[in-house]
Amino acid sequence: MLERIFGLKAHGTSFRTEVLAGFTTFLTMAYIVVVNPAILGQAGMPVAAVAAATCLAAGFGSILMGLAANYPLALAPGMGLNAYFTFTVVKGMGLPWETALGAVFLSGVAFLVLTLIGVRQLIVAAIPRPLFSAVAAGVGLFIAFIGLKEAGIIVANPATTVALGDLTTPTAAVAILGLVLIAALQAWRLRAAILIGVLVTGAAAWGLGLGPVGAPAYNLADLGATAFKLDVPAALNLQSGLGLALAEIVFVFLFVDLFDNVGTLVAVSKKAGLVAKDGSIPRLNRILLADSAATMVGAVAGTSTVVSYIESAAGVTAGGRTGLTAVVVGLLFLVTLLFAPLVQMIPTVAAAPALILVGAMMIGGLVDIDWSEPTVAIPAFLTLITIPLTFSIANGLAFGITSYAILKLLRGQASRSDWLLFLLAALFIVRFIYLAKG
After folding, report:
1. Phi and psi dihedrals of 11, rounded to 5?
2. Cα–Cα dist 44/42, whole Å
């Protein structure tokens, strides 16, 4: 049956190899079960319920990817988008987390529709590839900035905006310990480096009295506190004063998911040797449909946007070549669901080192940008720098796409095929004017 579903022999792999690859991928990304609730918990969401939703969304998405698309690609709530959800949408704009979940669900529906009618291909073709890398790196800086802030390593300063915090405080000291530990484990190429680092840092913080006192009640009913709480009608209420803001939120969730998915897909597919001779990716629509379905299920369960994880490359390195690898990852996440309430015991500061170092790993894509070409380098830089400094992925997208379109027009390189790029740039300019008047 496994041979018929996944074609193990045709892909030059075996059941044992695929299971080993699945465990490898799971260990490299299991930190999300701790880190995602720590971030979304700051939006007022119940931590145990978010942990359960994280496991459920990752389990469903990874299994669906494996069965429907037959790719060794694992899914889980995305880093960066969870920070955007909490710090920009809920805390910054003042939206209830239920409405934000409704926006996440709508972005999944939009992704599904765009994939089915073929518009997704137009969007991907309209956005220059260097901006994909710049957005990923900008999101990396964004979550690293949040991690440094949560650790107390950087603090607000009225004179310089930010400054170095007091590194002798217990919070900062524990976070630095976590940074050193995770960095050392990564230097030794340990697969579960981030997960081990988070757990050890959490134990140290708990020992210093920085965590909750006493074990939480192990009540599986609490895991449903975020399920079906999304408020889609509120997210659709374009007649309210937040109409444009809500539309922008859906837009950002959609676009960053699209960029993340395509970038990860290309990287993992190349590493696994799954790219066709003409450079195309087989079963691409199935992959994107699985991603959009996982986002919708995640929103219903109670978590932010689900994306493909670059950590899937670890499983590919271990020999994973088929969807069986992803199915194994999904099953492991579903088993982890039983331990979700224990996440409440881990202090928030334990996630800070993981945020910082995951952010660092997301910077790697900058090597793909031609920094000697101004028409590429300037939009990429503006994207990269405005995401963390304005605390908004939307602003980074706006600056990058608008500046690229303007430079292309002034350089005399515009053509009719670029109509969607210029349409997006025009919409972003309207957005800037609207924000200025607001």
Report:
1. -95, 5
2. 5
C-alpha span between 381 and 225 (Å, rounded):
41
The one-letter amino acid code at 53 reads A
Q: What are phi and psi of 293, to 5 degrees?
A: -65, -40
User: Both tokens of residue 223?
Assistant: 């895991």
- Closest by alpha carbon to 388, among 137, 165, 161? 137
Residue 197 contacts residue 174 (beta carbons within 8 Å): no
Q: What would the DSSP string read from start to end of 308-321? A: E-TTHHHHHHTT--
In 3D space, the residue among 259, 246, 237 whose CA is nearest the CA of residue 383 turns out to be 259
- Two structure tokens written together for 62: 């990874």
pLDDT < 70 regions, the chain: 121, 124-125, 212-220, 238-244, 263, 266-267, 270-271, 275, 277-280, 435, 437-438
The structural domains of the chain, with segments of one domain joined by +, span: 2-362, 370-438
Residue 341 DSSP label: G
Contact (Cβ atoms closer than 8 angstroms) between residue 373 and residue 129: no
At residue 59's C-alpha, the angle toward residues 54 and 65, to 5°, is 125
CA dihedral 18, 21, 27, 33 (to 10 degrees): -50
**CA angle 136-142-145, nearest 5°?**
140
Give how far the C-alpha of residue 341 lies from the chain's centroid of Cα atoms, to the nearest Å.
23
Q: How far apart are CA 250 and CA 235, in angstroms?
A: 9
Strand bridging mode 75-77 / 306-308 = antiparallel
